[in-house]
Amino acid sequence: MINSVAVATQVVATNQNVLFTTDRVRTKSCNSCCGWLSHDTGSGLFTLTKQGVYEIQYNADITSADAGQASLVLEQNGEAIGGTQSIYTVATAGALGNVSASTLIRVPCGASYTITLTNNSTLALNVQDANIIIKKIA
Q: Cα(36)–Cα(9) distance, rounded to whole angstroms?
């Protein structure tokens, strides 16, 4: 299991990934040399390297300097994962809203998937207290 966080506010441009600066919990099975997950601290890329079923959860506080629709989505190899987009309408610039989602991912034998949390709105977002948890469940 890995639990990565990014507490400080970061500006995430459209179609860019949230960067996770701290791995708060990282079990031995998540080591990059022989485990099932690869993540470099400070990166937004989480690579699932072994066959299995994985549960992925995220939450974050988001806002924008402009009013409009703000959203984050989990992506697998650069493609949005259906059912994981979370939307917050920024009515007043700078007003925070909390977004979250979770999903299950199956990685087949011989494959590897890169998972990211991406700004898929048309606004640059201020993201703070971002949190992602990835667990191998089968």
A: 29
Give the pair of three-digit tokens for residue 23: 């791995």
Structure-model confidence comparison of residues 108 and 27, the more confident one: 108
The span from the CA of 45 to the CA of 101, in Å, is 17
Is pTM beyond 0.85? Reply is yes
C-alpha 28, offset from chain centre: 21
Summarised one tens digit per residue, pLDDT across range 43-55 is 999 999 999 999 9
Contacts with 97 (C-beta within 8 Å, 6 or more apart), sequence order = 61, 62, 63, 70, 88, 89, 90
Whether the Cβ atoms of residue 6 and residue 23 lie closer than 8 Å to each other? no
